[in-house]
Design brief:
Length: about 260
């Protein structure tokens, strides 16, 4: 999968609507007791596993116990509407119940599906590991607000963006969406914003991370792996009527196995 730098208008519309990759949502499974207390693995020095965040060699960021028995990997696009919905439903409970217990680590790896992804993802990565998940959640929480700006970009500006080389297009799109202001408001000086967006090595590094996306056969977002196994037909964080579609059920099953 490569960064998308063509067909900007149609790709931006898709980013607002959602993302591909869902499977058949009719799978059934036994209900698991989601209220059962999880065994706790203490963090060092009376710490908190949700505060342990590291960059990974594959280009992602991992929160939690690096030796957790259950390793959750999420492939996601920052511009993806389905990813935003999943974040809003899942992130707090995933962190506070599962990652905090030490039983689950959570790695997020970026997928570049839409023209808006490279610039925003570069800014996220430039802020470093400790703020990565918090900023990602804030972007998803405000997704409908900033993604709606794509519909207000004049046709002449879209045409100009379309004609730009990737090294110019990524930062220009980020600024068109107001991402420079978003990150400034969260403590990133304008000089750092400009340096991050204008450094071609940041874009090249992102392109390198997409090799693992291809190797793992990721075709839509969000896509989840638990202990290296892709989770087919996951449609929800928790869905009592159809527990087979619930990622939370699958995490509980993995913890109990």
């Amino acid at each position: 999968m490569k960064p998308v730098f063509v067909g900007i208008a149609s790709a931006l519309a898709l980013a607002v609507a959602g993302c591909g990759g869902e499977g058949d949502l009719n799978q059934a499974a036994a209900t698991i007791d989601l209220n059962a207390a999880l065994p706790q693995i203490a963090a060092p020095n009376n710490g908190d596993w949700t505060q342990t965040v590291q960059a990974t060699p594959e280009g992602g960021f991992r929160m939690g116990n690096p030796d957790a028995p259950v390793k959750l990997l999420e492939y996601a696009s920052i511009s993806c509407g389905h990813c935003a919905q999943f974040s809003q439903e899942a992130s707090e409970e995933l962190k506070n119940t599962y990652v905090r217990s030490g039983q689950v680590s959570w790695e997020y790896r970026p997928v570049l599906l839409f023209p808006t992804d490279p610039g925003i993802t570069m800014l996220l990565r430039c802020q470093g590991p400790q703020s990565f998940f918090a900023l990602t959640e804030q972007l998803y929480a405000t997704h409908s607000e900033w993604s709606a700006r794509t519909g207000t970009i004049p046709e002449s500006q879209l045409a100009a963006l379309q004609a730009m080389p990737p090294q110019q297009q990524a930062p220009a799109l980020a600024r068109a969406l107001g991402m420079d202001q978003f990150f400034r408001q969260r403590g990133m000086p304008q000089a750092q914003v400009d340096q991050c967006l204008n450094n071609p090595e940041n874009l090249n590094s992102l392109a390198e991370t997409q090799r693992k996306v291809q190797e793992d056969g990721v075709t839509g977002t969000p896509t989840f792996f638990i202990n290296g196994q892709v989770q087919e037909n996951v449609g929800y964080w928790n869905h009592p009527q159809t527990p087979g579609l619930s990622l939370e059920n699958r995490l509980r099953a993995a913890i109990g196995s």
